[in-house]
Amino acid sequence: MQLSELSDRSGVAAATVKYYLREGLLPPGDRVSATRAEYSPAHVERLQLIRALVEGAGLRIEAVRRVVGALDRPPESRHDLLGVAQEAIDGPAPEVVVTEATLRAVAELGWDECRLDRLAHLQSALDQADRAGVGVTPERFRAYAEAMLDVARADVAGFDDDPERATPAGAVRYVAVGTVVTDPVLVALRRLAQETVSAERFGAVSSIGPSERP
Amino acid sequence: MQLSELSDRSGVAAATVKYYLREGLLPPGDRVSATRAEYSPAHVERLQLIRALVEGAGLRIEAVRRVVGALDRPPESRHDLLGVAQEAIDGPAPEVVVTEATLRAVAELGWDECRLDRLAHLQSALDQADRAGVGVTPERFRAYAEAMLDVARADVAGFDDDPERATPAGAVRYVAVGTVVTDPVLVALRRLAQETVSAERFGAVSSIGPSERP
């Protein structure tokens, strides 16, 4: 198909398709003349993925480039590809010093497989919370960690939902795309759950009720 | 104190302080002459909060404006302020149709206090995951929801960590700032937990091990 059809079928504007081609996010089509190239269904699929990453997950072009790179060069083992996919979505580790307290907290959870660059992302998030004056207490840290372990179990069990995920490229796609587009689902559920727990604890009825009307 | 000292004490560049003043995020100081104004420790505190929201939580200026507005006009009841704080951080509800399936899934959880605008945020996140080709199955949805209920219980229990949170302004601050700066902590913990669960399931050793060397 030509560029105009590629644009129609993927729902991505022709100018944006050209931008992705220039940026190397989309491989070039097969040249059929000096001014025309031929694109394949794989191009449509890749464009839909890029769109999901940009619009759905709000990734920047640099992060999209890392995800696409991981898809084009998937690692051999299932566990390694997790690291590749995670690094693709979250970028290089921030330059922070992982504290003794954080190392101890993670060790107490028995999470022995954690890479140091992953811990740096956690440390950076904890530091920002501290600086905002709402530091995470050890009790809250433990509750958060256990809840996210339940989330991760559901994530990893999801590998079996689709046979395509058994291939390295399919697995990178599931981890990178699946994790990044479901972070907002978790965030939205957290807000809903807060409403539920808050209503249990403080009552759902506004204190400015009918009885207080003049 | 004068603007230069306000800048030093808050760690925010003088030009940025002026920008926040122009944008109305920071209330004006007391005019002492045509060219000088006097600022208070409350200005330092407000600047630190703005910095945490912008740098720590990555909020846009519009969202910071909503959080600051909620702090300046806190609602009366503890439960209402949760809604105000949540809307401040997440903005108005996206224009999506909440599906029957989502309404049913939330009803099955027994989350009866959920406002429709909150459900719209959830629906929007679920739609994006679908469009990315990694839709959330009912089993995964339920696991995510239950995990986030545990998170919310820890969040609401955190109200008791600091007596300042008993005041409406303190509570808005804790919910708005505390939720938005700990979303990245949860995201970081999810990645670490995925590593742990993945190592349990697929083994942590790379398949390109010593035995495969030539």
User: What portion of residues of chain A is helical?
Assistant: 55-70%
Largest sheet of chain A: 2 strands, antiparallel
Spatial strand sequence of the major β-sheet of chain A: 1-2
Helical/strand content category of chain A = mainly alpha
Biggest chain pair interface = A-B, 92 and 93 residues
Count of extended strands of chain A:
2
Structure write-up:
The structure is a homodimer of 214-residue chains. Chain A has 214 residues and is mainly alpha-helical. Helix content of chain A is 65%, strand content 2%. Chain A contains nine helices and two strands. Chain A has helices spanning 3-10, 14-23, 41-56, 61-72, 78-90, 100-109, 116-131, 138-157, 168-202; strands at residues 30-31, 37-38. In chain A, strands 1-2 form a two-stranded antiparallel sheet. The interface between A and B is large, with 92 and 93 residues.
Present the secondary structure layout:
The structure is a homodimer of 214-residue chains.
Chain A: H1 3-10, H2 14-23, E1 30-31, E2 37-38, H3 41-56, H4 61-72, H5 78-90, H6 100-109, H7 116-131, H8 138-157, H9 168-202
Antiparallel strand pairs in A: 1-2
Please summarize what this structure is.
By secondary structure, chain A is mainly alpha-helical. Chain A is built from nine helices and two strands. In chain A, strands 1-2 form a two-stranded antiparallel sheet.
